[in-house]
Amino acid sequence: MKVFRSPGGRPFLVWTLAVQLVLCGSWVSAAESVNSCKLLANSSSEWTVLKRLEPLANKNFTVEDESYRYVFQLCGDAGGVPGAGLIQMDKKETGKKQTVIGMYNATQAIGGSDWVMLIYGNGDTYKDHCNKEKRRAIVMISCDRKKDMGNLEVVLEDRSRGEQCFYLFELDSSAVCPAIESNLSTGSILLIIGFSILGVYLIGGFLYQRLIVGAKGMEQFPNYAFWVEIGNLTADGCDFVCRSRNREESPAYRGVAPETLAEEPEERDDHLLPM
C-alpha cells in the first residue's frame, strides 16, 4: 500500500482513516437516534411515528418555571442522567438530586397528521400524591413550519387525581408537519418546463445575435431565417388545405393576357378602290 505524506510529514493515510471513523460514528449515531427508545408496545405504527421525530434527536430542550428547571431529550440521556428522557431540577436547592419524570425505555408514541404525542413512563415515584405511583411525562409536539426546533414549554403537572398523574409539555417543530403536496397536474408541469425552455432560447439567442453576431432589427431574433421559412411553409400548407377552389383555373375562364389586348395595326385597302 502506498502511503502519501502531507507537507508537514504526517502520513496521509492516518488522516483518511480518522475522517472515515468520524463519518462512520456520525452515521451510526444518526441511525440509532430514535432506536435508543424502547416502546412499551413494540408496534410498527409507533416506530413509524417515532421516526418522524429524528430531527429532534440528540438535543437537550430546557425550560424553567418559578421553582423548577426541566430538561428533555428525545431517546437520549436528558441532562446526562442515564436512561432519563425528561428530568426535573429544583432551582432553589441546586445540590439536590434530579427527579426523573420519565424514562425513554418506557416510551409511547401516538401521532396524527400534524402532531405527535410522546409519553415517557417509569419515572421516580411520588411521595405523597397519586397513590405513590411512578411519574409520567407527556410531550405534545405540534407542527410549526416556521420552527425547526421550538422552545419547550411547561403546561401543567396534574397530580390531583388518584392515578395516571402526568406532567404535560409542549414543543413546536416542523419535523411533524405533513409533506406539502403539489397541486400541479402533469400537463401544467410540462407547460412550465416548455415555457421555461422557450424563454431561455429566446433570451439567450437574442443576446448572442445582438452581442456576438452584431445583428440589428428583426435579425436579432434567434434563427430568424428559419422561422420566416417555417411561417411561409405554414401559410402555404393552410392555403393548400383550406382553399375551396382549384389552384389552377380552367383555360376557358383564364384571363386574357394584356399583350393580346394591344390594337393590331389597321389594314388599309385604299389602293383597291378605283381611281
Notes on the protein architecture:
GO terms for molecular function: D-mannose binding; protein domain specific binding. Residues 1-31 form the signal peptide. This protein has 275 residues and is of the alpha+beta class. Among the domains are: 44-173, Distorted Sandwich (Cation-dependent Mannose-6-phosphate Receptor, Chain A), CATH 2.70.130; 186-235. The chain is built from four helices and eight strands. The protein has helices at 12-31, 44-51, 186-213, 224-242; strands at 60-64, 68-73, 84-90, 99-111, 115-121, 137-143, 153-158, 166-173. The protein has an eight-stranded mixed beta sheet with strand order 1-2-3-4-5-6-8-7. Strand 3 (84-90) and strand 4 (99-111) form a beta hairpin. The protein is rod-shaped and about 165 Å long. The protein starts with 11 loop residues before the first helix and ends in a 33-residue tail after the last helix. The relative contact order is 0.08.
Structure described in brief:
By secondary structure, this protein is α+β, with helices and mostly antiparallel strands. Helix content is 27%, strand content 21%. The chain contains 4 helices and 8 strands.
